[in-house]
Specification:
Layout: H1 2-13, E1 25-33, E2 42-43, E3 60-67, E4 73-79, H2 86-100, E5 107-111, E6 117-118, H3 128-154, E7 157-167, E8 171-173, E9 195-203, E10 208-215, H4 230-242, E11 247-252, E12 258-260, H5 266-285, E13 289-290, E14 295-305, H6 313-321, H7 327-341, E15 349-360, E16 363-368, E17 371-372, H8 374-384, E18 389-391, E19 400-401, H9 404-409, H10 433-448
Parallel strand pairs: 4-5, 10-11, 16-18, 17-19
Antiparallel strand pairs: 1-3, 1-7, 2-6, 3-4, 7-9, 7-13, 8-12, 9-10, 14-15, 15-16
Helix pairs in contact: 2-3, 4-5, 6-7
Length: 462
């Protein structure tokens, strides 16, 4: 009888189509200092009219490579930067494919969105000297990230992985509150989502190897001309004091319409960073959910559209000839003029918006490109459960990702869309943007086996 039970169990274990974790997790970490060694143009604030003037805190990139019990690998990359655009992102991910056989679905490239980091796109440069500095920095950053990922993969070791959620409340909705009057208000209007997602990576010895944590809030508290990682950097510093030798990685959430309060000074920024670190510490100090050693990943790039009329030929000629417009916009305007001259139509679309879903053990993780409003995180967590993690600012940065309500209301976040020459006249995303993205997330979630939460929810278009 015992032999029969063993035979049945052995047959089930090795039957075709049955994915069984053969071993546990492995993880490896690496980091690199990416602080510029020279004065150069910064990204994040359009009001800046001169290059950087020093450093408040070094800026970093960190990577953690994970391997599940079946040998599947993924890598999560965190970068202190306002946002890495499609061109640079594709170069980085292309090299990771060539060197380490990592497909796009196996890579998360997340930007902290610090507004005190260096520019990586020549469009920020005001002259040829600055544009050349930006080009050199972007090339160096590309190589640093690729080399760092290689080090993380080479350092893989057995680990256990745990997840949990904390709470911190310095996030304020900047659309529904007056930004310069926050200090006069006793309460703030939402919507908000104060979650602090946390992943703990623990060595077989019981020591912690790494902690990954996130928050959905603009890293725009400092507005000077000095390089800084803003509040995420202060949070990492605090955690690395509490846990010496541990690598901490910050991942930006769906904070497109969220800012921090208090703000505008180093002291305020440090306070928010410490508050975030305390929230992470609380999660780490209590029982967390251990995740089984299985990985499933999915990724796609979808077309997002505008439902507005594109610029006329005369408008495009004005855009192309206006030297006050960034080169990227002027070049796109000339390309569109050439299309019109050939008798072709020009349609304002963005063809490669990234949506991504991972299942890390039992943990659903969603990433969206650009700067998604907090409503996307709220909706995804309503659909898939409050334990789901939602990151914005991932893989490709191009524009704010608004909801139909924000588009209807207008304002700063409602009039940002990456249609290059169309941006001059404030062309908006189409009103189907939210439905398009949520439906894609639903499709990708099904591919990796992420189930919807038991609570019924009305899904747009579903």
């Amino acid at each position: 009888m015992k032999k029969l039970i063993f035979a049945i169990g052995f047959g089930l274990l090795f039957s075709p189509g049955v994915a069984v974790s053969q071993t546990g997790w492995k993880a490896g970490v690496a980091r690199a200092n990416i602080t510029p060694q020279e004065s150069m143009w910064m990204a994040g604030f359009g009001f800046r009219n001169k290059p950087s003037e020093g450093v408040t805190s070094d800026i970093w990139t960190q990577a953690i490579a994970l391997e599940d019990g079946n040998g599947k690998k993924v890598v999560l990359i965190a970068v202190d930067n306002a946002g890495i655009g499609k061109e640079l992102s594709d170069k980085i991910r292309g090299k990771l494919k060539t060197l380490y056989d990592l497909d796009k679905d196996q890579i998360i490239l997340n930007n902290s969105h610090t507004h005190s980091g260096p520019a990586t796109s020549a469009g920020w440069g005001r002259d040829d000297v600055q544009k050349e500095k930006i080009k050199r920095y972007a090339e160096k950053l590309e190589n640093q990230i690729v080399e760092m990922v290689g080090k993380a993969i080479k350092s893989l070791e057995p680990v256990k992985i745990f997840s949990g959620n904390g709470v911190v409340r310095f996030q304020v909705n900047r659309r529904n509150n007056i930004q310069y009057k926050l200090h006069l208000q006793s309460e703030f209007n939402g919507p908000n989502m104060y979650d602090v997602p946390v992943i703990k990576v623990q060595k077989s010895s019981g020591e912690m190897l790494a902690v990954l944590f996130g928050y959905a809030c603009h890293a725009s508290m400092l507005r000077d001309y000095k390089f800084s990682g803003d509040y995420p950097a202060y949070a990492r510093m605090e955690l690395e004091k509490l846990y010496p030798g541990v690598t901490s990685l910050f991942f930006q959430g769906a904070g497109g319409n969220q800012i921090g309060h208090p703000r505008n000074t180093i002291e305020n920024t440090r306070q928010c960073g410490k508050d975030l670190a305390v929230a992470v510490e609380r999660v780490l100090s209590e029982p967390m959910k251990e995740l089984s050693a299985t990985l499933a990943t999915s990724y796609s790039e979808i077309v997002l559209e505008s439902d507005q009329i594109p610029p006329t030929q005369s408008e495009l000629q004005e855009i192309a000839s206006n030297r006050n417009n960034p080169d990227s916009i002027r070049i796109k305007a000339r390309e569109d003029l050439d299309k019109l001259n050939r008798g072709e139509s020009i349609i304002p679309t963005y063809p490669s918006y990234p949506v991504q879903v991972w299942k890390i053990g039992e943990l659903p993780l969603f990433t969206l490109g650009g700067e998604p409003a907090i409503e996307y995180a709220i909706k995804l967590k309503l659909i898939f459960g409050q334990e789901a993690f939602v990151f914005g600012y991932s893989n490709i940065m191009m524009a704010y990702i608004s909801t139909p309500l924000i588009l209807n209301e207008g304002g700063y976040e409602g009039s940002s869309a990456p249609f290059s020459s169309y941006m001059v006249r404030g062309v908006k995303w189409g009103s189907n943007i939210e439905n398009r993205i949520i439906q894609e997330a639903l499709k990708l979630a099904r591919q990796v086996g992420v189930e919807m939460a038991p609570k019924k929810y009305s899904i747009p278009g579903g």
